[in-house]
Give the backbone structure.
Amino acid sequence: MLKFRNIEIEDYEKVSPLLKSSGIENCEHCFATMLVWSMRHDIQIAVEENTVFMRSFGREHIWYLYPRGQMDKKQAIEKIIRDADGKKISIYGIDENNAEFLKENFSDIFDIKEDRNGADYIYRTSDLANLPGKNYQKKRNHISRFLRENPDYRFILLSEDNKQIAKQFVGDWCNIYNTENSWDLASEQKGILLLIDHFEKLGIMGAMIESQGKIVAFSLAAPINEKMVDVMVEKAYHEINGAYAVINRDFALNCFTQFELINREDDMGIENLRKAKMSYFPTEIRKKFLAQSR
């Protein structure tokens, strides 16, 4: 049986190289992202034969991240089936190649279907850094207005010296916008604060936008591999026109030029979030699949 336990900061050094070497490029591939999600979904981890397994418990299903690592793929899925011990299984974060593998080898156990709400939005770094051409005219207009209204603005990299300021912004942002006392936002806030506390150890990049001595936008990102970076957190004050556009552009322009692609994660099926992600014209909407036992 797989030996699951709670995810810990100390897992990063062993787990992150296994995730990166698996060749799977989606947001679940990033250790820091899964650490944040563990606060919301009580995700547990097991590492066996240099392969990473993660699971959480839903109302009807046990949810497993598609395993990443060096174990034979068929053997890894069989371990998940044994671990579930007869309970219903959902496997998520499945890329297209591994969806085909499951169809070929486990179609008698699982229904495999595309998970559009979980698809990752992939962008060229050069597009988000430079906002070229007609497609991005509206984004450039938002930024121009921000610059007119905030001529003293500064782009600031997250550091040990200013991380308390970043944490204060996250707390203030959640107090303002979590008007319904959503458990999801509260748990996300807890995860973000954990990332800020350990950003250097976890290989995380962070940035802030300051105007009139006040932080108005904040973002965190971490490499998925040498080619792709994952933007896992982006917060800004909604009433400050262009704040989101500026943190998006400036982070890409100042910190991501070594990466060809930016992964801005999925939209979770939220209409406004889907509209916002589409407005930046992704170069690809990376398909992901969901496998559920019958």
